[in-house]
Amino acid sequence: MKNRIPKTDSIQELAAFWQSHDVTDFEDELHEVQETTFQRTDIVGVPLTAAERRALRHAAAARGVPEAELIHQWVKERLGRP
């Protein structure tokens, strides 16, 4: 049986697969997609003290959101963006 293209959203798994396979061997499985498959985001590291990190963790937990989502909300509020 011929190998099939993995059905996964994992960039790491797909990269490992394509490192050892040639796309021309799968031409019958390929089709063009119109929508964005992977959305890239910019990531910024923010240095925090241990106390600031604890406060952030507590604030995010109190709102029931991940820490990164809370930081993103705060940045958008500060920049006056929805």
Q: Which terms summarize this structure?
A:
82 residues; mainly alpha; elongated
Protein model, in words:
- This protein is mainly α and 82 residues long.
- It has a domain at 50-79.
- The chain has helices spanning 11-19, 50-63, 67-79.
- The radius of gyration is 20 Å and the shape is elongated.
- The termini are far apart.
Structure, briefly:
The chain is mainly α. Helix content is 44%, strand content 0%. It has a domain at 50-79.
Q: Cα distance, first to last residue? A: 51 Å
**What is the SS-derived class?**
mainly alpha
Largest sheet properties: none
Low-confidence stretches: none
- What is the average per-residue confidence, as pLDDT, rounded to a whole number? 87
- Report helical residue fraction: 40-55%
Radius of gyration: 20 Å
Strand content: under 5%
Map the helices and strands.
Layout: H1 11-19, H2 50-63, H3 67-79
